[in-house]
Design a protein that fits this description.
Largest sheet: none
Distance between the termini: 47 Å
Number of strands: 0
Order of helices and strands: HHHHHH
Length: about 170
């Protein structure tokens, strides 16, 4: 007896293109047509990141600026907007989970003006304070020490794979 396949999150279990063609040729079924080719193209990471509401291209810069928030009226609005941006980032990471761990948060922090002491400081405070809250919520969901050890093991495996590939090329 065949073992049942457990569905993976964010992955649709649809038949392959050749199987769909064979079914369509062999019978007159009411299946939906195959998706257009454009939906199979992969979007670059930078193109995905620019969809965040606080990431924009600036004139004279050939890569995005990762902290271009809207102009708040006062500190309270800046804090609310910062929290909202953190929620946007969290949703983006949730939607694009394979792209997590590639330095997006570092690029955002790098492009922030940490010397700005005006009411716009509320943008940064709201942003990072809400991310702290999200980390607490996420931390309750898993054993952090086991998870970080698994991440270390993954990195060691990647390093070994890279070493073996380089050794083979020599």
């Amino acid at each position: 007896m065949a073992k049942p396949v457990r569905p993976m999150p964010n992955i649709e279990s649809t038949p392959s293109h050749s199987k769909v063609q064979a079914v369509q040729q062999g019978s007159v079924s009411q299946q939906q047509p195959a998706l257009p080719r454009s939906l199979y193209r992969f979007t670059s990471l930078e193109t995905k990141e620019i969809r965040l509401p606080f990431v924009r291209y600036l004139p004279g810069r050939d890569y995005p600026h990762y902290w271009q928030p809207a102009e708040p009226k006062d500190y309270a609005e800046a804090s609310r907007l910062g929290r909202q941006y953190a929620a946007h980032l969290a949703q983006w990471l949730k939607t694009n989970s394979p792209d997590a761990g590639h330095g997006l948060l570092l690029r955002i922090a790098r492009d922030m003006d940490h010397g700005d002491r005006s009411y716009r400081n509320g943008l940064r405070r709201g942003f990072f304070n809400y991310l702290e809250v999200l980390l607490v919520v996420a931390g309750r969901q898993l054993n952090l020490f086991r998870h970080v050890e698994a991440m270390h093991q993954l990195q060691r495996s990647r390093d070994l794979l890279s070493w073996l590939e380089n050794k083979r090329q020599l």
